[in-house]
């Protein structure tokens, strides 16, 4: 297991590490770049090759995220940060790929997806390392590895338990606010159910086409499929009151995505955005009044953060205005701060950023009480 300490804590404004002093002017520039919604912007991860997709426990005392750390594994692993001490502990096994972590709202447990039980996991790690050493550059593409399963583990990375045990991509999981349910995305039906000839061709060309939203009890039982499309439904998160789920649905050609919400039983599926672009990574503000998400309405590779009311009746409002990628936004449980993933770094690799959130301005911009 990897254990290291980062000296930037949050919320608040503490001194930067020596590694970040050289980028102080850069940070000062980012503080004025968030259209007034975000202030006191700081990079809060710097010791990894790249990092992102951080989520808080309900008490705000822990942050779980994924990161690549120099070593024998070139893929993301899962790390848990103690906000008070700044100590960071690896909680995933260290073999294979991992993604999409979450912290239990009450218990000391972490949820994430991993391929460490893939018999070829170590071989794939070696192949990836050699590929990178060769200097060959590949366009970024998400991996729908059929060996991804959803696991839970304790804060020390022990007592790991497979909750899905099903062939196919099982990932993008999160606990409900009371910890009783898990929403997740999966293309398991492509491996277990008969497909039409057209579906077989579609899945062969695009494994994400069969990904739907599912819900299950926290122990992995009572699995229920909530969406029924031949396009990618993924990234589900529960609303603060636990009554609804927000997610993003791709178009059938995979070129666009919009934000949707539904009841936790799959009923009342409601489209929230109509931007006809790639809108994804939605997340509720703890007030349950609006949703923040990322979209590329300003350019194919220029993802910015936007907010929209939970009913989609208002025009979405732009939050960030930096070139490059700003995405995967989450709010602290008290709603006063925001953490997101951005490549607004000198090396243009994804890192976690954090800033103070102006909730009042958000409400005013959307015309909400």
Automatic annotation (TrEMBL):
A Pfam family of this chain: PD40
InterPro entries with a match to the protein in the record: 6-blade_b-propeller_TolB-like, WD40
Signal peptide region: 1-34
Keywords: Signal
SUPFAM superfamilies: DPP6 N-terminal domain-like (SSF82171)
UniProt cross-references to PANTHER family, sorted A to Z: PROTEIN TOLB, PROTEIN TOLB HOMOLOG
UniProt family annotation: Belongs to the TolB family.
Name the record gives this protein: Periplasmic component of the Tol biopolymer transport system
Species annotation: Nitrosomonas europaea (strain ATCC 19718 / CIP 103999 / KCTC 2705 / NBRC 14298)
């Amino acid at each position: 297991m990897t254990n290291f300490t980062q000296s930037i804590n949050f919320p608040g404004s503490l001194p930067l590490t020596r590694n970040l002093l050289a980028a102080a002017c850069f940070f000062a520039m980012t503080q004025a770049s968030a259209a007034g919604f975000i202030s006191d912007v700081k990079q809060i991860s710097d010791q990894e090759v790249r990092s992102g997709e951080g989520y808080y426990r309900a008490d705000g005392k822990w942050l779980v995220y994924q990161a690549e750390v120099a070593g024998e594994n070139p893929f993301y692993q899962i790390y848990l940060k103690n906000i008070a001490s700044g100590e960071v502990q690896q909680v995933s096994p260290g073999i294979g790929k991992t993604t999409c972590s979450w912290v239990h709202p009450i218990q000391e447990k972490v949820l994430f997806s991993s391929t460490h039980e893939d018999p070829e996991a170590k071989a794939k790690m070696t192949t990836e390392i050699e590929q990178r050493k060769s200097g060959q550059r590949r366009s970024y593409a998400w991996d729908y590895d059929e060996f991804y399963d959803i696991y839970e583990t304790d804060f020390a990375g022990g007592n790991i338990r497979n909750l899905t045990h099903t062939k196919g991509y099982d990932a993008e999981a999160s606990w409900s606010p009371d910890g009783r349910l898990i929403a997740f995305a999966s293309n398991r039906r492509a491996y277990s159910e008969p497909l039409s000839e057209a579906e077989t061709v579609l899945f062969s060309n695009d494994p994400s086409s069969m990904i739907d939203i599912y819900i299950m009890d926290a122990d992995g039982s009572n699995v229920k499929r909530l969406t029924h499309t031949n396009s990618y439904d993924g990234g589900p998160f529960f609303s603060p009151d636990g009554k609804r789920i927000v997610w993003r649905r791709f178009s059938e050609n995979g070129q666009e995505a919009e934000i949707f919400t539904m009841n936790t039983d799959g009923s009342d599926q409601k489209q929230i955005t109509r931007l006809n672009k790639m809108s994804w990574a939605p997340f509720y503000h703890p007030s349950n009044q609006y949703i923040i998400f990322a979209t590329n309405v300003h350019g194919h590779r220029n993802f910015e953060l936007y907010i929209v009311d939970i009913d989609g009746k208002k025009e979405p409002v732009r939050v960030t205005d930096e070139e490059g990628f700003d995405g995967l936004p989450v709010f602290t449980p008290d709603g006063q701060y925001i953490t997101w993933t951005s490549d607004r770094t000198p090396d243009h690799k994804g890192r976690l950023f954090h800033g103070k959130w102006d909730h009042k301005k958000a409400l005013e911009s959307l015309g909400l009480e």
